[in-house]
Design a protein that fits this description.
This protein is an alpha+beta fold and 101 residues long. 29% of the residues lie in helices and 27% in strands. The chain has a five-stranded mixed sheet, covered by helices on one side. α1 crosses α2. The chain is globular and about 35 Å long. The model has no long low-confidence stretch (mean pLDDT 86).
């Protein structure tokens, strides 16, 4: 399944009330960043927020997402991270302090 451009209906929180993602493949949520540099902390936080909001949206297209990735077409480089390596405490902190669930 490939989904290009999607929203997080039902996944918004107190602090984030709008937004949309870039691209979904079968098991990866992708964000596109065009830069001369490697992804910054704010870029990795953004895609993690997209994942969390997607899971909270109740949309089944997020059920099989196990990785997040950033694609930089300017450098022709992809960065992929396995979501199972993220501590649950980190997810809970982002849910509460950043998104506002």
């Amino acid at each position: 399944v490939i989904q290009d451009g999607f929203t997080f209906s039902g996944g918004y929180g107190k602090y984030i009330t709008s937004g949309d993602g870039d691209f979904l493949t079968e098991d990866t949520l992708w964000d596109f960043k065009v830069s001369k540099n490697k992804p910054l902390t704010k870029d990795t936080l953004q895609i993690l927020i997209y994942y969390i909001m997607g899971k909270h949206s109740g949309n089944c297209i997020f059920d099989n997402i196990t990785k997040v990735g950033i694609f930089n077409p300017r450098l022709n480089i992809i960065y992929v991270y396995d979501l199972s390596k993220i501590p649950s405490e980190t997810i809970k902190c982002i849910e509460k302090e950043v998104i506002g669930y």
